[in-house]
Design brief:
The protein is an alpha/beta fold. It has two domains: 146 residues, Aspartate Aminotransferase, domain 1 (Alpha-Beta Complex); 237 residues, 3-Layer(aba) Sandwich (Aspartate Aminotransferase, domain 2). The protein has 14 helices and 15 strands. The strands form four sheets. The protein has a seven-stranded mixed β-sheet, sandwiched between helices. Strands 11-12-15-14 form a four-stranded antiparallel β-sheet, covered by helices on one side. The radius of gyration is 21 Å and the shape is globular. It starts with 15 loop residues before the first helix and ends with a helix. Bound molecules: pyridoxal-5'-phosphate. Pyridoxal-5'-phosphate binds next to helix 5. Keywords: Lyase, Pyridoxal phosphate.
Length: 389
């Protein structure tokens, strides 16, 4: 028996995952649909986090607040403990989320019309946020190889050479869950330095390492190029706190940090909700045993789904190294995406994400979120099989 066998009942709680499927999937009734799409978990966070939030609620001090030294120290300690990465408290800025950080970083450190490079398939907001901030998105596809993706550095360099100003890295990669190795990260740094490109490294999935995989923050490898790297991290994916909305940005370049904070102030985002640092601090200071148990549980869920679904002809799944999302290759099924989604939703009553949301390279894949109880995973596998039967 694991604590993760128990899940929260999230239907009718204003949950994006459970309560917005009518709109997202254009369905009139979703009461019997099992959602395994958007990236949050069905689990309660560590009890230390809930207790700290309850204490804060009881104290009822909700005036303007700032992020105290203890919360910053909790971040410094977490980076040291998890990644042997030494950072200074002064290099940390805060944001309501990685996505608002991304928008503000682009506003602060690039100009309207500048080119921003991404490697596809990629998390959808990394297409839309630069575009809606009047930046031009340039894509460079990753290359599928042995069930994983690799960089084509020749194509990557050609893309950078087109006067690109910023590169958004996703490490571990969403949707694939790949943890980029040090050689790959060093080559990204070398090429971005050659073309004087800012690196925005989104490492929100970093803590979700499975089966002994090891995440390396790109900035740790940057050496003399450290000032061209901005790292975005958060406890929200790790500890299921997305609704609390807290993320942080690490940069050693004081000028970049000042510009970023000026944009935060200009948009009225100079401070956080007072619950946010409370949750962050409790999660980092006391959440590690919960996280270790979670990762074993997720790994087991993944093993089950992979073992079951890869028995179906035309389905291939490589186990990710870091995330709770599975990237299911259905390209050999002989169904187009519309047919596949229709069968899953109408026959299987299962809501997964269609791969084309992640760029054309994702077409023919499905993204499945297995951060739920093992019973739910078994139910999902049965629904998937029914949909394809
Ligand atoms: C790679 C990646 N970056 C950013 C986010 C969103 O982060 P936030 O909720 O902090 O804006 C997600 C959420 O799924 C994600 O997968």
């Amino acid at each position: 028996m694991s604590i993760f066998d128990q899940t929260l009942n999230r239907r009718c709680t204003n949950s994006v995952k459970w309560d917005t499927m009518e709109k997202v999937y254009e369905l009139s009734d979703t009461t019997d649909i099992l959602p395994m799409w958007i990236a949050d978990m069905d689990f309660a966070p560590p009890s230390a986090v809930s207790k700290a939030l309850q204490k804060h609620a009881e104290e009822a001090i909700f005036g303007y607040s700032y992020v105290g030294e203890e919360a910053k120290q909790a971040i410094v300690d977490w980076q040291k403990k998890r990644y042997n990465w030494h950072i200074e408290k002064e290099s940390i800025s805060f944001s309501h989320g990685v996505l608002s950080a991304l928008a503000n970083i682009l506003t602060a450190l690039t100009q309207q019309g500048d080119k921003v490079l991404i490697s596809t398939p990629f998390y959808p907001p990394f297409f839309s946020i630069p575009k809606s901030n009047d930046r031009e998105v340039v894509t460079c596809p990753l290359v599928a190889q042995d069930g994983t993706y690799v960089y084509n550095f020749e194509a990557f360099e050609q893309a950078l050479a087109q006067n690109v100003k910023a590169y958004i890295l996703c490490n571990p990669h969403n949707p694939g869950g790949y943890v980029w190795d040090e050689a790959t990260l060093k080559e990204i740094i070398r090429l971005c330095a050659k073309y004087d490109v800012l690196i925005i490294s989104d490492e929100i999935h970093a803590d979700l390492m499975l089966d002994g995989a090891q995440h390396t923050p790109l900035a740790k490898l940057a050496g003399d190029e450290i000032n061209r790297v901005i790292t975005c991290m958060a406890p929200t994916k790790t500890f299921n706190l997305a609704g609390i909305q807290v993320a942080y940005i690490i940069t050693t370049d004081k000028k970049k940090q000042m510009l970023l904070e000026a944009v935060n102030m200009a948009s009225g985002q100079g401070s956080l909700n007072s619950f946010a640092p409370v949750a962050l601090q409790a999660a980092y200071a006391e959440g590690l045993p919960w996280l270790e148990e979670l990762l074993l549980y997720i790994s087991n869920n993944m093993n089950y789904v992979i073992a079951e679904l890869t028995q179906l002809p035309g389905i291939h799944i490589a186990k990710p190294q870091g995330t709770y999302l599975l990237w299911i290759d259905c390209r050999q099924l002989g169904l187009n995406e519309k047919e596949l989604m229709q069968r899953l939703l109408e026959v299987g009553k299962l809501a997964l994400e269609p791969g084309s949301k992640y760029g054309e390279e994702g077409r023919g894949f499905l993204r499945m979120n297995v951060a739920c109880s093992f019973d739910t995973v078994k139910d999902a596998v049965a629904r998937f099989k029914l949909a394809l039967s």
